[in-house]
Amino acid sequence: MSYKKLEIWQEARTIVLDIHKMTLEKLPKFEYYEESSQIRRSIKSVKSNIVEGYGRRRYKQEFIKFLTYSLASCDETTDHLETLYETESLKDEILYHDLHERLQILGRKLNNFLQSVEKNHNIE
User: Fold this and answer.
1) Which residues have C-beta within 8 Å of that of residue 12, sequence separation ≥ 6?
2) Which end of the chain is more exposed for a tag (fewer CB within 10 A), N or C?
3) Buried b / exposed e across 52-91, counting CB within 10 Å, b at 16+?
């Protein structure tokens, strides 16, 4: 099995693409090196940590550690998104609510996956 078959990776990937596009098309230029850069890095970290954890899945504690990093990066991304909206750098309310809800869903799925690994770890 590949990490690409994990639902959490697939969802993280689509959010990475959508946030990247949002930062290029919907934010003022002055945010490009500030909050835009931060949110792009944090959402990419969600996906990358899933991949790295999956690559270390033979070692339960390593797998858990990277899934925990991924969950923390998801929370960080949510915080950056909220900051962009609250400062009115992101004015598209529909896009904000869509991304925010998707990040919440991804966070719950990451948490559930993490709990499953903690309880039922096996190598696939």
Assistant:
1) 43, 46, 47, 50, 70, 74, 106
2) C
3) bbbeebeeeeebbebbebbbbbbebbbebbeebbeeebbe
**How many other C-beta atoms lie within 10 A of the C-beta of residue 37?**
13
Average pLDDT of the chain is 95
* Token pair belonging to 4: 């690409």
pTM of model > 0.85: yes
Domain definitions of the chain by residue range? 3-119
**Can you tell me the distance from the alpha carbon of 33 to that of 38, in angstroms, rounded to the nearest whole number?**
8
- Interval 3-28: pLDDT, tens: 999 999 999 999 999 999 999 999 99
